Amino acid sequence: MHNLSFNERLLAVHEFPLFQWKHVAELMRCDPELLLPFKQPHLLPLNNEHLIAWRQYVRELTVQRRLSWYREQGIGWITYFDVRYPSSLKSIYDAPWVLYTKGNTGLLREAPRLAVVGSRSMTSYGKKAVEAFLPEKAAGQLQVVSGLARGVDGHAHRHALKAGYPVIAVLGSGFGHLYPKEHLGLAKNIAASGLLLSEYAPDRPPRKWHFPARNRIISGLSDKIFVVEADVNSGSLITASLALEQGRDVCALPGPVFSKQSSGTNQLIYDGALPVLQPEDLSIVRRPDSVS
User: Fold this and answer.
1) Where does the Smf/DprA SLOG domain start and stop, copy by copy (predicted)?
2) Are the beta carbons of 37 and 27 closer than 8 angstroms?
3) Distance between first and last Cα of the chain
4) Torsion, CA 192, CA 195, CA 196, CA 200, rounded to 10
5) pLDDT the model gives residue 83
6) What pLDDT score does 2 carry?
7) Which of the residues 104, 134, 178, 182 has an alpha carbon 20 to 30 A from that of 272?
């Protein structure tokens, strides 16, 4: 373990099943080089349960074998301290310590990015809006980011691929447990020409709380967030709220006042979000991002 690079040590700490983002942050504060976990773990600010489990984890840890398997599976990984880590995401409070990748990581160096999110129960109105407001003629001007969920997210990915947009999908699980399963083919298509991203190790199954956490990455990567359809309890409103906290622009599709799927978007507009009435409302001024 003593010959691991700093990034490999961070990867190992990040993948410890009992650690959440806050635990890694605490370790980084007390030991910025992450040497103590592998040399003197008893000095770490860990409770007894975590310490026992950590020692067992380190005894069984084979980082190089795991990294070799990642390469065989076409999986890349980028830590927060890697020059390839997108600067837009690094600017948020709780940026992921590690990003796992499948596909074209060059997209992380390029901007502008538009997040397209919305209800899992997409209506024909929302479907038509996605297609109308992401025309083929604008495909060279934007990257489209979404969460691979059912409904608006999945349709945004499919339409963007068909129209020629670069596409980034942010997952709420590891690549080995893709969710929802019916989007496995869509995920393969995105990996072939765009990029799949996850902060979860490939063997990590989806958990309920992963998806709200995933939303901060969608908004953090993006310059502008377009909420297509959402009811007042939709997770898409979490993304919009995070986007505002991160200083991103939020816009929404106005809809019928009696439609449940438009109640959340109409509320966003009432609260100050830009109503999207034409494709030009989704335009973004290009800004610099991280470099390789």
Assistant:
1) 78-282
2) yes
3) 28
4) 140
5) 94
6) 60
7) 134
Kind of pairing between the strands at 98-103 and 76-79: antiparallel
197 within 8 A of 214, measured Cβ to Cβ:
no
3-state secondary structure of 145: strand
For residue 55, the model assigns a pLDDT of: 94
3-state secondary structure of 60: helix
pLDDT at 280: 93
Lookup: tokens for 54: 């950590």
Beta bridge pairs of residue 98: 79
Which residues share a beta bridge with 195?
103, 168
Distance CA 98, CA 227 (A): 27
Dihedral Cα 199, 201, 202, 204, nearest 10 deg: -100
Give me the phi and psi of 159, to 5 degrees please: -65, -40
State the pLDDT at residue 213.
Answer: 92
Amino acid found at 113: R
**pLDDT for residue 243:** 92
CA 148 to chain centroid, in Å, comes to 10
Are 73 and 100 a contacting pair, CB within 8 Å?
no
The two three-digit tokens of residue 58, written as one number: 């380190």
The string of pLDDT tens digits covering residues 102-115 is: 999 999 987 799 99
- In the predicted model, residues of the chain with pLDDT beneath 70 are 1-2, 285-292
Please state, in angstroms and rounded to a whole number, the distance separating the CA atoms of residues 234 and 177. Answer: 24
Separation in Å, CA 32 to CA 6, 10, 25, 26, 225: 10, 10, 10, 10, 34
pLDDT recorded at residue 290: 42
Each residue's pLDDT tens digit, 240-252: 999 999 999 999 9
Backbone angles phi, psi at 6, to 5 degrees: -60, -45
**Residue 6 DSSP SS3:** helix
